[in-house]
Input
Amino acid sequence: MLKILKLGGSIITDKSRLATARLDQISRIAHEIAGSEDLVVVHGAGSFGHIHARQFGLPESFSVEGLLRTHLSVSDLNRTVVEALHDAGVDALPVHPLSSVVLRDGRIHLMSTEVIREMLRRSVVPVLHGDVAMDVSRGAGIVSGDQLVSYLARTLGAGMVAMGTDVDGVMIDGRVLSCVTPESIHSIESHLLPAKGIDVTGGMRGKLRELVELAEIGIDSRIFNAGVAGNVRRALSGEILGTLITGREHGDGPQEA
Output
């Protein structure tokens, strides 16, 4: 069963400080990933991407320098994640969306997945990240890690999608929702808190929009706290954590965090 794990930028970087990786968290998570099979890892850009994008006015303004600086920054973070995985004994290789994704109006229009499929066939963990990409409508844009997760889950037929964040799940008034469905999303969006630090990709609202689309085609996902030691390993093993996003009938309602 193919598993897709998203590591939020808030977990692996300090989003309040430019290009600051949380090396202890990255190393811990890498060791929790070790031993997982049929896995794709996608990580957010955090302070390695959002601050640069805001500085150069992306995606509203087309700036080659902005695209270059943002991509080089997120690539540095990707290298750190891949090297941590190797140190933990995981055969991992980077996949940069700038070289494999074409956007249209800010959404993925085309994406080459052949190299990802070949890596998986050879038991290699592909590691993608939030990045800039060329856009046939706007010149260029930002492809979030959340959008990559949604696209890859649909295209590759994922059996498990897990989103690791810095909170215990979808939080409403200090409580964790056990479940979110396409029917309930509209009633809770206005209650979601904004993302911490600079985030040009939509925060929790952006995550939920992507995951609700997956739920509508029968792919369930989980939003959980990857900042708690052991939770990444538990999520990848199928343990129930955080908030379930599903299109199936489910006993919905908040539970204590």
